[in-house]
Records
---
Amino acid sequence: MSGSRHDPVAPTRAQSLASGAAIDAHLHDDHQIVYAGRGVLAVTTGTGTWIAPATRALWVPAGTVHAHQAHGELELHLVGVAANDNPLGLDEPTVLAVGPLLRELILAYTRTPHPDSPERGRLRAVLLDQLRASAQQPLHLPTPNSPQLRAVCEILHADPADGRTLAALGREVGASDRTLSRLFRADLGMSFPQWRTQLRLYRALIMLAENTPVTVVAHRCGWSSPSAFIDVFRRTFGHTPGSHQSHAPGQSR
């Protein structure tokens, strides 16, 4: 990602972003925890996009060039972590589960106005303890390098509901399904069905953040029925899309 700016210290703060607003590509010398208390956040690097609703946070390692994109009215919370203190031992962006306790710790920590108080120090220690216990989540949409694979992915980005087989898509881009299947594994680290599901979930989260009805989301993202969409969404996120849209933490009821 060219043209990025260098912010030496990763900030700790809370801020609001309007739907569609963006923070341009930048990097920090410190690690950063990025959390959306409301709305859906997408973080993009040169290798792909990570997406997080209010039940997930993003770990962004020090030195990672990244950009933020808001979907829905976004309440953004940022926690800086010194580069020599990597409580998770992670060297690439990662989506982490955020339970009720960790959520409240992040909100309280980023809203506390006294950065050097003993109370804040204890709050931070508990926050990092909870972060260490958070499960990693496979909500990563990697960016392909192969021109043929990139062409297939662009077709599906334009219409996630496109249900053609890999062989049919391959005929359009001039590659066999065997070649494309191998490229998905080698280039993106996942199978074609896994990548397409990730793309559809990514698009579904964005549409839900914009208050699109669940039945419309299911149709536009390529599920055969709303019930099929709800089943995949529940297995991935632990709650239904309707619950995510109307009653997710931080959302108005």
---
Amino acid sequence: MSSELHPSQLHQHLQMYSRAKWSSWCSLALGCGLLFLGATQKPESKPWILAASVGTLEVGRRHRQTAKLLLESLGDIDRASKLNFQAWARAKTQPTAELALTVGAIDANWKPDNLITDPVDYIQKKQKHVALVGGTGDGKSTFTQYLSSKIGGRVVVYDSDAKPDDWAWIDQADVIGRKGNFKAIDTAMGNDLETLESLVQLRGEGGDNAIAGRERFMIAEEFPILVDECGNSTDWIKRHAKRGRRYKQFICALAQNDTAENFGLQGDKDILYSCFVLVRLGQFGRDYARTKLKDPQLEQWLKAGGKKRFMVDDCPCELDLSNWGTGARVQPETSDLDCEEVRLTQDLNEYEQIIVAWGQAHPRETLKAATLQRNSQPFKKDDPENIRIIFQSLADRGLGEVEGNGDRLGWRWQK
């Protein structure tokens, strides 16, 4: 039965229906209570109590009848109201069809207006360090290797959970803290603080030339753990954050959250934003685009690009291997073969030496990452992007040359 009530009568009838319904239930409960009470009282009191009980039950019956009549006059309005509320709740707690359509129909050729392709240029202009937020498989190794190849300096890694094949692109003696050796990390960080103080003294006495050749690129993996386990970690990050860049001591601290507490900066939140560029990889970058920037299209763009796309502060970034020629490390010019042999044996790690040895044996052939993975045991489990980074790093240092770009980038030996 559908309601024939005028809208002006609807609210009044709803109130009457609600009151009659509750009054009928209350009368039933009270009548039952009086019946129970009458059964336990003296004989002279029972008639009065039983009469009150019967009267109360009759009132309840009439109220229930009234509620039934009111419900019939209301028709399906009450049920419709419940269904409308459920629909409203679903609309507020689930993505709307319009949003899903907008995100799903993203243009494959769309690019953000503030896209950057060289994060190092951005970082250098800001004169800051890097706070890297990322999880396992998000491309932390690729990004840190990219940074080190562009910024330069001796690379040192503090990583208590490093596996044997992690950080394969640097001298393994500079990967400190394997197997949970936090004491080694704490000692090394203490030495870093002493080194920083000595550089301050050297620069004060002899200027920038006095500290030339002492550049370092320090990577601290899972910094929240280091804060808990290493007493020097908080002082290490604060003092390097404020003074390290001036003395060519660049730090890259890694965590899985972008709060100041995770970087040992409780109460010093300003240091995080004034001294660090925040780089968010993988899901962390996509979450930032969705929740902070409120940009679902940017979120989908980041997802489509894999490890090469991430957020640098509020700017989306896409690594472009074809631009890796700028900012290269400069090697001293020399034509002396003995000097070249010394450079090859002293300046290259074991992985770079494998590549150079292959190039010297195949001087006119171009080496690709896939070829190296198939034919060299140390590279079998390495990420192809990491191998291409080594190719470019060698070329930047004057050892061979690269050709192609992106996934097709290869390396060829050239004196």
---
Amino acid sequence: MSIAVSTKGVTNFNEVLTRVKAAGLMKKKPSFYMIRLAVISVLASGLWTASAFIGQAFNENPVWIIAGFGIAGLLGVLSAQYGFIAHEAAHRQVFRGNKANDALGLVLANLFAGLSYGFWMKKHNQHHKTPNQINADPDIAIRILSFTPESRNEKKGIERWLSERQGYLFPFLLFLTGFDLLLDSFAGLVRKEKPLKTRLLEFGLMTVRQAAPYVAMGFMFGWLWAIALWLFQMMIFGFFMGAAFAPNHKGMPLVPKDSKLDFFSRQVLTSRNIRGSWLKDNLMGGLNYQVEHHLFPSMARPNLRKAHAIVGEYCRQNDIPLIEMNLIASYVVIIKYLSKVGLSNNVDPFVCPMVATLRPRS
């Protein structure tokens, strides 16, 4: 089904953008990010210091084992926080200049989160251009998940088996997100889209990030325990990354590959907001304001909450569906949707955003 471009949609965006600019919400806030990075780095340094003390006393006592895994898990959470700020640097949210944002993003993504900044930028920019569009959005072209029956039917072997059970397995599959991103990151560095010098720099930083914690844990806890702790850290890192990004679009209307949508409709109708709180805003990297992030991708995180009030009011005034729900409810929607795609041969995967399911505000 082809959907015509809406002139009103263009007007909608211009009107909202005017209101947002008038409120001063497009201004950068580098101090927010510098303070946040300082806090995260102090916490990470404290955890590594604590792990050194635990490593000296480590004798495979259950108490020390639990403490070791606890620290590894917290380091995984902090790695995800570095990843969120790298994501924001890629969107030019931190500084005015592109070079400063790219330098920060490259260091944070490759050296602190362990993922390729170049790979992430290419993949994520394409997602923003075509969110939830079939055969265009890389975020719905995932190896072990299927978002349409056609995608499920194309898979074979273990990928097909997982897709058919993806609804039940989804919470557990989130723990594999970090490994999937890591494999894609290294694979992306092989492609010759970036200069060799840049790819070698990214490879070097990623290698240091992935090897250094393992070596450090090896000396502190022994090499077998180091492998277990590294794997656990990667699982927690991946879970937090996947759990923060999944509620934003999964289970929302899909756009047929040949459809044309105006920018405002494309971003609002395919995105889902999560009701915010101080804790969610921090743990999810501001991604709980997904509609506003997609409408204004270069907007600094602290301004998203204020922009949400403006966008929400405009959508209510103009009877435009804006989906917002609590975090648990969003996961329920995702799991039900993935189960339908995985198990049913007659599922309508919300292919038309104008028809969709556009579920009422909850």
